[in-house]
Write a structure and sequence with these properties.
heterodimer, A: mainly alpha, 8 helices, B: 266 residues, 2 domains, 11 helices, 3 strands, 8% strand
Chain lengths: 169, 266
């Protein structure tokens, strides 16, 4: 049971790693930090997976993991000397609400056919539900990426030092 | 403070020269997917280096910029430049960020900054075959993550790969970029819709939904929300509109192919 759960988490981690890595290539991130994009994406997605398996709601789980990834991203930016957005952007794509967006669109197409509306009377509710999930998930991802601007007063990520004293030049 | 640093800080740069350089940097960054806050921070740093102050209005399609000397109020210039075609390229953001920090530290003089900018503008994106391969792999993995079986993943991979190649091909033929999105999503959905019609995989819906995800304008949409949070409203609306029109094009392409395959199969 436990072994099975750990296997599923690892599988999730591995798949999300490939997604983050490959999306880095699509967005033209520098070669040296593609693996960081992969690792961050994998960490975020598997954290969300674990949270969802332990009974957290989809939106809350996404919020927690996206904020976590945003904060780790700031730390990584100091380590590798790249702006965080270069690798957090592909990392966040792993959590993009593709399935909900697709269902919204398919619902809208079905809305043009009277026969289908008669067959499924709650089609509007389904479309509204999927649309709201898509929009809220997108907004949550944006909050995660811009967490530096929201939580810290510093203008530049370079000046955020998590309570450590700034080096004197 | 060393001698070289203080001497280079005193370098005189005319506002017009600086405005040209800064517009070059700002438009390139906008086109490669930077949010407004990042561009403004970078250029502020750069302007302070030569004792200039810079004010700008960034929209998605162009930049208006006023550069004024901090010492002479009449030493000022206002320029506008529209952006080159948009294509996301995050490596440029790193390079410009490093360039402006280096310039602020006094390591580069004005001419070196100009040369560096030219070099950065010429940095190539990954070639389209490796992008297509990456897109195929990641769409397959997204499909598996969404609960598809191995066969669904394979279908999503093939669909995304072919669609990506088709999109690059159409863009090279200098058609309207929106048409490229319509046709790419049409081709991808035809491949993954075949899975739905012939019941190859166990969860064909996931392949359909995830195979077109490589077209989703993630960077403009997320940047739009970041701009909204940081208060750059005009840019936020422009980006949202751009993202929404791409989404619409995707939906049109998918609708065409779904209608062709028969809506009742879905």
């Amino acid at each position: 049971m436990i072994a099975n759960f750990i296997f599923r988490v690892l599988l999730d981690f591995g798949l999300a790693f490939v997604v983050g890595f490959c999306w880095g290539i699509l967005f033209g991130s520098p070669k040296r930090i593609l693996w960081i994009a992969g690792l961050l994406g994998a960490a975020g997605h598997s954290l969300r997976f674990v949270l969802q398996q332990t009974g957290t709601e989809l939106l809350a789980a996404t919020m927690i993991s996206s904020v976590t990834i945003g904060l780790i991203g700031i730390y990584c930016a100091h380590k590798v000397h790249h702006p965080p957005v270069v690798f957090t952007m592909p990392a966040f794509i792993t959590m993009i609400p593709g399935l909900y967006a697709y269902r919204t669109m398919l619902g809208c197409i079905k809305l043009t056919d009277p026969a289908i509306i008669r067959k499924t009377p709650d089609i509007m509710t389904q479309i509204g539900h999927n649309l709201m999930l898509t929009l809220s998930l997108l907004a949550i991802l944006a909050i995660g990426i811009s967490i530096a601007a929201l939580l810290f007063r510093s203008q530049s990520v370079k000046d955020i030092n998590f309570g450590k004293r700034q080096k004197k030049n | 403070m060393t001698d070289t640093l203080s001497s280079s800080t005193n370098e005189y740069v005319h506002a017009t020269e600086f405005a040209d350089l800064a517009l070059d940097i700002a438009t390139t960054m906008l086109a490669s997917g930077a949010h407004c806050g990042r561009i403004i921070r970078n250029l502020d740093r750069l302007a302070k280096r030569w004792e200039l102050s810079v004010q700008m209005q960034l929209t998605f399609i162009g930049v208006v910029m006023t550069v004024t000397s901090e010492h002479d109020l009449f030493h000022t210039v206002t320029r506008y430049r529209s952006t080159p075609p948009h294509s996301v390229h995050l490596e440029l953001l790193t390079e410009f960020s490093r360039l402006t920090w280096k310039a602020t530290d006094g390591d580069l003089n004005f001419q070196q900054v100009q040369e560096e900018t030219e070099r950065i503008k010429r940095i190539k994106h990954y070639n389209s075959w490796s992008v297509a391969l990456a897109v195929g792999l990641s769409c397959a993995c997204l499909c598996l993550l969404a609960g598809g079986s191995f066969i669904d993943g394979m279908v999503a991979c093939v669909g995304a790969f072919i669609g990506s190649i088709v999109r690059v091909f159409i863009l090279h033929q200098k058609f309207n970029p929106m048409i490229a999105f319509v046709i790419a999503s049409f081709v991808t959905t035809m491949v993954s819709g075949a899975n739905m019609v012939f019941h190859w995989g166990t969860a064909p819906e996931t392949a359909l939904a995830t195979a077109v995800l490589y077209l989703v304008p993630g960077v403009p949409l997320i940047n739009s929300l970041i701009d909204l949070i940081e208060g750059h409203l005009s840019s936020a609306w422009n980006r949202a509109l751009f993202g929404a029109s791409i989404l619409l094009c995707m939906a049109v392409g998918m609708t065409l192919s779904i209608a062709l395959l028969g809506i009742n199969n879905f």
